[in-house]
Amino acid sequence: MITAKVLKKDGRIHTMTVSGHAQYKHSGHDIVCAAVSTATLLTANAIEHFKLNHLIDLTIDEGYFKLVLKEQNMIIETLLENLASALHDLEKQYPKYMKNQKEG
Questions:
Q1: Are strands 56-61 and 98-103 parallel, antiparallel or unpaired?
Q2: pTM score, two decimals?
Q3: What's the domain count of the chain?
């Protein structure tokens, strides 16, 4: 199962962690993993495109994505809200394979 954790401070996303594997299908055919990977990488790439990397700590590894916002930035916060929304939609479509948790 893929678990996405969103930590908010003062009502704003501060940290987002996505980890695990969906196990929907075998490797290379897992549409849930592919969708989650695409959403997280698009978010990271958009932050890089806007040249805002200095405002985040980002860790990406096999089955693991963690982004920590070092200082508030409306563009990054909007991208993270969009990512959280996409992951929520995936959880609604594939509840056996995806779980979202919110803190704060």
A1: unpaired
A2: 0.91
A3: 1
